[in-house]
Structure formats: C-alpha cells, structure tokens
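Re: the 194-residue chain
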Amino acid sequence: MPLLLLKDLPRYECLLEAAKEFPDLDPSAAEAFLHLLYTGDEAFDVSDRNLADHNISHGRFGVLMLLWRSVQPRAAKLMGGDECLPGPRTPAELADASGVTRATMTGLIDTLERDGFVKREPDPDDRRMMSVRLTLAGERFLTEFLPGHFQSIAKLMSPLSEAERKTLVRLLGKIQQQAAAMSPRKKPAAVPVG
C-alpha cells in the first residue's frame, strides 16, 4: 500500500494559495515532501513488482540478503560491511538487523524455511539457541535473482547522472538525519537503586 494516497500531487500554486489559510504551511517544503513520498512509493512499487514476479516479499528478501552477507565476503563489502559476519545468525540478530520484531522475524524465517531457502539449526556453541543459515537453494535463488534485480535498480536510477545520484544521496541523508532527530526516543530503562 502506498504511503501517499494522492494520485495527483497539488501544483505549487495551490500550495501557495493554501498557505494563505494555513500560515505554517511552507509551500516549497510541502512540495518537496509530497514529491519525496510519491517517488518513494513509485520506487517501492518497481521493487515490489520485481520481487513478486519471483514469489518473494521485501521482508523475506531482506532476511536472505542479511544471511547472504554472512556467507559471501563480496556481498558484505557491497552492502557496506567492513567484516563478514561469521556463519549462521540467530533470529534475534536478524530481527535487530532488519528493524522488525522477533515475532515478525519468526514468521519470515518460517516461510523461508518452508520454501527451502534457510535452515534452523541448534547453535554449536549454545544448544539453547537456534541459528539460521542460508541453504544452497537460498544461495542459488539469490545468485539467479540478483543480476536482474540490480539491473532494475540501475534502470530506475538511469535518468540521473553519477553526480546527481551522489547529490541525491547527500540530500536524502540530511532528511534522514532530521527525521531521526524528530523521532521520539525510547526512555532509557530505569536503573535499580540500592
């Protein structure tokens, strides 16, 4: 489902007119914000259709990429990792790395295991814990899927020059920092006294 439920974005002139009624409305900020959401929805839709054509969801794909990163040194470098994480990962580690709840991660792992892409195994160091590893079928899926996926990303970004892409990343980084600063933070856990 799209984040922005507008088919047609308001023209700048309409935003200027609305600012007369709502003085806190910054027309250029609103215009940029609406275009950011609309573009995000469109880019997500391209990615979503590509994943759906291969019978995989964004969540399941994310888990596969995290696990692939742990077994593929080149993938770790491509995804910004300085080091390759050793071997299988726990469901809790995968949930933390994905930013989802542990219950959500359990569901993602269940469907990936059902499809033969991952396998749960007792942790070799701590039998009370489970580890998740990518199977050969999971690795094969990724090696077959990723070239087309990367081509789709390149095609989507092709209207921008290399310099424009770097500028876009820099500008989006500024917005991400501001959004993080505006997000409510969880209160620190109370420290027992005495």
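The helical segments are 12-21, 27-53, 58-71, 73-78, 91-98, 102-114, 136-157, 162-182.
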